[in-house]
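Thread: quick sanity check before group meeting

JM: Hey all, I'm pulling together slides for Thursday and realized we never actually wrote out the predicted structure for the chain we discussed last week. Dropping the sequence here so it's in one place. If anyone has concerns about the input, flag it before I start.
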Amino acid sequence: MYIQFAELPVTDQDRAKAFYVEMLDCEVAADAPMGDDGWRWIELKFPGTQTNLHFIHRGNEAPSEMPVLVLVADDVTGTIQTLRARGVEIVTEPHEPSWQPGRTVAEFRDSEGNRMVIGTP
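JM (edit): ok, ran it. Output follows.
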């Protein structure tokens, strides 16, 4: 089983789209009008995966306290170094959590304040 579609709460679709394309190398799968309020259907895809992201309206601009998405990478430390060099806010440095020995995890925030976990498989 795998996640094919994940929804991310955002307040600014253009800013979020730019973040995911420029910082996480996502590809735009769809960007089309979705109603009279100016909201668009934006779908982004991580290269080489089956997972698409879709933006939903965020109720406020407060950053999320808990992670809203978990990403998997073979090289968490290298990925965090790349994100830091691109100006991404790193919440926790790569470490081995006590609840998952042998796995490396770290956390960062996207442009909308969403907290993300990135971990080894």
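AS: nice. The mean pLDDT is 92. Helices lie at 13-24, 76-85.
JM: adding both to the slides.
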